[in-house]
Amino acid sequence: MASIGSANVGFQLLKKSGWKEGTGLGAQEQGRLEPIETRVKNNKRGLGAKEPKLKPKVEVDVENNSQKPKPDVPKKRAKLAAKRVRKMQEEEKRLQEKEFEMAFFREFWPDNV
């Protein structure tokens, strides 16, 4: 990687603060000699995230003109279904507790209060 040019604003600020070209930025001039390489990030993953794994290509059967299903799709569907069932059970439990509370108040609470 090439060093930054003398027209660069950062270069000029460093020169003003006493930095000498070709030396590091540390107290004993032990820091980097070249600027950190940058790259454009086009995804929504975090800065430290590794590149995403490529999805396997779907094989197409030319004779039958059909696609083979992906092997991990049933796992995802089962996981989503289990999550929905769990949420429904939690909601049902919450409604039962609410109904119990309402029945308790109806039995022991006076009507005119």
Task: Walk me through the structure.
This protein is mainly alpha-helical. The protein has two helices and two strands; from the N terminus they run αββα. It has helices spanning 9-16, 73-108; strands at 60-61, 66-67. It has a two-stranded antiparallel sheet with strand order 1-2. A hairpin with a 4-residue loop joins strand 1 and strand 2.
Name the structural class: mainly alpha
Number of strands: 2
Arrangement of strands in the largest sheet = 1-2
What's the average pLDDT? 79
Give the SSE order as H and E letters: HEEH
Strand content: under 5%
**Measured distance between first and last alpha carbons:** 81 Å
Runs with pLDDT <50, length 5+?
A: none
Structure annotation, total helices: 2
Fraction of helical residues: 25-40%
Rg over CA atoms: 32 Å
Shape assignment:
elongated
The description of the largest β-sheet is:
2 strands, antiparallel
Task: Throw out a few tags for this protein.
mainly alpha; 113 residues; two-stranded antiparallel ribbon
How would you sum up this structure in a few lines?
The chain has 113 residues and is mainly alpha-helical. The protein contains 2 helices and 2 strands.
